[in-house]
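Memo subject: From amino acid sequence to discrete backbone structure tokens
Keywords: amino acid chain, backbone geometry, structure tokens, three-dimensional fold.
Body of memo: The sequence and its backbone structure tokens, given next.
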Amino acid sequence: MRIGSPIPKKHARIEIIPLIDIMFFLLASFMMVSLSQTHMKGIRVNLPANVAVPPNQVKDFVSVRVAVGPVYYFDGQFVPDDQLMPRLMGLYQQNPGIKVSISAEPMALHGDVIGLLDKVRQVGIEKVGYQIRTGTGR
């Protein structure tokens, strides 16, 4: 037979609530101390000024359209047939690496387009491209 002790037995307990309070206090203290010790150190930098670059006056691309007649348009501006060679020479003298894109209207003659190509080659322009549109269904 077992007889119990007249002194009540106490089990050890760890109270969490005071432990949480202490941890929050320590966290807040460390945060305040670390923020007060931060010093802003910077390096002086001379940033470039906002200066507009002058636009490049030399053209590197021109679009030539051949219409019926023959009529020529340089970037949408009409150029008479007698001014075609001087205009091409002027463009070539400004920029020897200029690119020329040739396009033709549907009713323009093939010979007029080839004539323009010959004039472009005579001047010395070597970078020539063609704009080709597909025909609409007939």
